[in-house]
């Protein structure tokens, strides 16, 4: 791992003493509709390259697009959840540019008539403070294909020997959510940027409109940053950092850009408006392309698609059928589980709240669900270096393990082994129990045989117990547990020992 070269950066404390940052966050979310936005091609992730394409998404002459109704519905639901107004009437627009992963040479998007606009999202920061981020717009568009640059060391186009193109993703529905300029964040700008993307991800997950996997690109964030001298009101020139594909990277990228801008500005230099590329390994950004202006894209209304005019009845119906949203859920579980503000915040920042709630929904008692996610599973996530929700165990699977414990079929120790098996990809909890032979020995006759054997092996201890020294039973319990490989219920073993020694 390379370390960050900080010689060109200003110290962060000095940055926030001298400048006020302005942020602008653009988040692209890939909807998990079954089919693409303007054709019937499937959208399954990871399919063989160029197997999910048709004349429309390849932009062949004579093909005509048709809007995916589910895509529009998802866009409206997202808009409503973000407290936006929903357009009475809006159109798609062509955003013209030439790039090999965009076979039509234009992207079907929305321009001055987005489906949703003027909303906000309240973001809870780590210390519990709430920061309101204003939403400019949420509009519908389509994804591009993917380029794979082969040869060269970086995987980027420069230095590559050749490039491969996969159009499976071309035409997958995207919603772009753009904030208004975020002012007043001050020193907390990097934290606010991260918390906003996290809150948006939780919201989209609750709406069940997307897989919201930043690592797979179904949620992508571009972070715009500018600085103005402290107390000024005219925004500085912004840069737009792309390719920020984890929450942690959002925070790092914003902080890095603030420090880089500041170093240039204090030297009397000028910021170039450009896109920049974030490098995960070094935590630095590098220059991309000079920023196009809207005119460069020669936007014009899409003539092949009818306008979208959602009826007010439909919009209101969608509003009343929104699921429980994250802040509503937080309020409810805080009451139901009797959590202090601090406990609630800890669960939220550990990313455990939704997982616990889903485990409870799958039938587990709240305190047990909570204890598994915040202790054993949190340790597992930590040692793998992943977020809790990236662990390969579902709330339903955990609920099943918890049910097996309460039925007496598993001890806590065995249950951890079952969870290990699920995490190792050995299948459902019951399959792991069967395959690893992890059942509590609850059959008394098998236990009595083991108890009698242990008593016979330690006759002097058996004698003591018979003489009334019940505390001597501990050694025999240990021997039975050892003989049954820990699969016996220790309490029952103890009872049986005392019975056999009467
Ligand atoms: P583009 O097409 O250049 O990506 P958008 O309007 O889609 O432009 O997004 C720009 C984002 O940057 C928005 O979130 C906007 O609020 C924000 N923004 C605009 N001006 C500034 C600025 N000077 N500094 C920081 N952010 C800005
Ligand atoms: Mg944009
Ligand atoms: Zn298609």
UniProtKB/TrEMBL annotation:
The highest taxon in the source lineage is Bacteria
The entry's keywords:
ATP-binding, Ligase, Nucleotide-binding, Protein biosynthesis, Transferase
| Example of a GO MF term | ATP binding
- Pfam families recorded: GatB_N (PF02934), GatB_Yqey (PF02637)
The record ties this protein, via InterPro entries, to:
Asn/Gln-tRNA_amidoTrfase_suB/E, Asn/Gln-tRNA_Trfase_suB/E_cat, Asn/Gln_amidotransferase, Asn/Gln_tRNA_amidoTrase-B-like, GatB, GatB_Yqey_C_2, Gln-tRNA_amidoTrfase_suB_CS, Gln_synth/guanido_kin_cat_dom
Q: Which SMART domains match?
A: GatB_Yqey
UniProt lists the family membership as follows: Belongs to the GatB/GatE family. GatB subfamily.
Function of this protein?
Answer: Allows the formation of correctly charged Asn-tRNA(Asn) or Gln-tRNA(Gln) through the transamidation of misacylated Asp-tRNA(Asn) or Glu-tRNA(Gln) in organisms which lack either or both of asparaginyl-tRNA or glutaminyl-tRNA synthetases. The reaction takes place in the presence of glutamine and ATP through an activated phospho-Asp-tRNA(Asn) or phospho-Glu-tRNA(Gln).
Subunit comment = Heterotrimer of A, B and C subunits.
Report the protein name in the record: Aspartyl/glutamyl-tRNA(Asn/Gln) amidotransferase subunit B
Q: Which organism is it from?
A: Allokutzneria albata
């Amino acid at each position: 791992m390379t370390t960050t070269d900080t010689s060109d950066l200003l110290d962060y404390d000095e940055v926030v003493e001298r400048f006020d940052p302005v942020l602008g966050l653009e988040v692209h979310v890939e909807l998990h509709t079954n089919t693409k936005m303007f054709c019937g091609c499937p959208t399954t992730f990871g399919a063989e390259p160029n197997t999910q394409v048709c004349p429309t998404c390849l932009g062949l002459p004579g093909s005509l697009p048709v809007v995916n109704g589910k895509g529009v519905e998802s866009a409206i639901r997202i808009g409503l959840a973000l407290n936006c107004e929903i357009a009475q009437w809006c159109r798609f627009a062509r955003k013209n540019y030439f790039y090999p992963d965009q076979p039509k040479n234009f992207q079907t998007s929305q321009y001055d008539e987005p489906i949703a606009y003027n909303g906000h999202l309240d973001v809870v920061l780590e210390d519990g403070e709430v920061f309101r981020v204003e939403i400019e717009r949420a509009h519908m568009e389509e994804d591009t294909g993917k380029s794979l640059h082969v040869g060269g060391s970086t995987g980027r186009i420069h230095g590559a020997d050749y490039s491969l193109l996969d159009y499976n993703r071309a035409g997958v529905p995207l919603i772009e959510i753009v904030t208004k300029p975020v002012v007043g964040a001050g020193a907390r700008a990097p934290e606010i940027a991260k918390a906003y993307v996290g809150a948006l991800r939780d919201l989209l997950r609750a709406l069940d409109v997307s897989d919201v996997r930043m690592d797979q690109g179904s949620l992508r964030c571009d972070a715009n940053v500018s600085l103005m001298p402290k107390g000024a009101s005219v925004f500085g020139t912004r840069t737009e950092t792309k390719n920020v594909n984890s929450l942690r990277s959002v925070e790092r990228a914003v902080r890095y850009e603030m420090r880089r801008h500041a170093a240039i500005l204090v030297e009397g230099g000028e910021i170039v408006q450009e896109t920049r590329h974030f490098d995960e390994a070094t935590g630095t950004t590098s220059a991309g392309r000079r920023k196009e202006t809207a005119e460069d894209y020669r936007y014009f209304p899409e003539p092949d698609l009818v306008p979208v005019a959602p009826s007010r009845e439909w919009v209101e119906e969608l509003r009343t059928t929104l699921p429980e949203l994250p802040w509503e859920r937080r309020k409810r579980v805080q009451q139901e589980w009797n959590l202090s503000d601090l406990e609630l915040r800890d669960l939220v920042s550990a990313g455990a709240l939704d997982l616990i709630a889903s485990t409870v929904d799958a039938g587990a008692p709240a305190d047990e669900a909570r204890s598994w996610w915040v202790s054993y599973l949190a340790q597992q996530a930590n040692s793998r270096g992943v977020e809790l929700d990236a662990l390969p165990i579902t709330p339903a699977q955990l609920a099943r393990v918890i049910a097996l414990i309460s039925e007496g079929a598993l001890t806590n120790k065995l249950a951890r082994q079952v969870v290990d098996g699920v995490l190792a990809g050995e299948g459902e909890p019951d399959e792991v129990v069967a395959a690893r032979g992890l059942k509590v020995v609850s059959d008394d006759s098998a236990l009595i045989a083991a108890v009698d054997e242990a008593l016979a092996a330690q006759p002097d201890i058996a004698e003591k117990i018979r003489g009334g020294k019940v505390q001597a039973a501990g050694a025999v319990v240990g021997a039975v547990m050892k003989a049954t490989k820990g699969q016996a219920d220790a309490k029952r073993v103890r009872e049986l020992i005392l019975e056999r020694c009467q």
